[in-house]
Amino acid sequence: MATGTETLSRLERQLPSGFPEMVTDQGFTSLIDGLVALPRSEELLRRLREGAALPAPVEPELASYLQARPPRIASPAGSYGAAPGAGARHTADAMLHGVHILWVDDHPRNNESLVNAFRAAGAVVRIAEDSAAADAALAVERPTMIVSDIDRGGNPREGLEHIGRLRQEGRYTGPVVFYAGRVTPERTTLTRQLRAHLTSSGPEIERLVLRAAAGELPPPG
Questions:
Q1: Contact 147, 177 (CB under 8 A)
Q2: Domains observed in the chain
Q3: Strand ranges across the sheet with 197-199
């Protein structure tokens, strides 16, 4: 049976990286106080400690990419994120010309604004809703990069396991970015082992795609 120290250590690896700051956030602590005040809070806490199933389905957390803004690709002379002016429009339209992105996510609607913006900038974006569809796409073309979720098809690590198989079998060795709702120390460690990047930020995914398009996206250090 795991000791209290082991349990705490495991929990810290799975919590978002910003958790130490969260405990001083009034909104977060108010939420915790509200949960503790619920009539069945003791049963809920007991089930969480024991790892038992919750008594009712819990809606997934709202990931940051649900509000992701389209990439605002500036001309080379401008700063990243600055909206291009009329004179830069042609440059922006051609910025991702020739770039092929394989985007693997079982909820593709979450990424529509980013996907549409990348296509408008000249990229070819192929959507795969599961690992089998991604494998079929890789059998006919080699993308510039893969963007993948992590939790997919009922398996909380399907994205990691799928990229792991591709790496092990040598079917894809290029840039990979995991785009997920949570960035935790555990996920960061696992993605780095796969020579992949991890982010939950819309602006960061834009930056990584631009670097991959320029051939300047090495594995994370």
A1: yes
A2: 14-50 (no CATH), 93-214 (3.40.50.2300)
A3: 124-128, 100-104, 145-148, 176-179, 197-199
* β-bridge mates for residue 41, sequence order: none
Beta strand 124-128 with 197-199 is unpaired
Report the alpha-carbon distance of residue 149 to residue 177 in Å, rounded: 9
Task: Please say whether the beta carbons of 66 and 109 come within 8 A.
Answer: no
| Close Cβ partners of 44 (under 8 Å, ≥ 6 residues apart) | 35, 38, 54, 55
Q: Which of 181, 166, 167, 85 is nearest to 132 (CA)?
A: 166
State pTM to two decimals. Answer: 0.63
- Tokens read off for 79: 């700063």
Q: What does the pLDDT look like over 171-217, one tens digit per residue?
A: 999 999 999 999 999 999 999 999 999 999 999 999 999 999 999 99
Identify the burial level of 181 via C-beta atoms within 10 angstroms of its C-beta, where 0-12 means exposed, 13-18 middle and 19 or more buried. middle
Q: Residue 92 contacts by C-beta under 8 Å, 6 or more apart in sequence?
A: 73, 74, 75, 84, 121
- CB hemisphere CA count around 36 (13 angstroms): 6
Residue pair 131/152 in contact (Cβ under 8 Å)? The answer is: yes
The CA distance from 52 to 145, in Å, is: 38
User: Per-residue DSSP letters for 9-76?
Assistant: HHHHHHS-TTHHHHTT-HHHHHHHHHHHTSTTHHHHHHHHHHTPPPSS--PPP--GGGGPPPP-PPPT
Q: What single-letter DSSP state applies at residue 29?
A: H
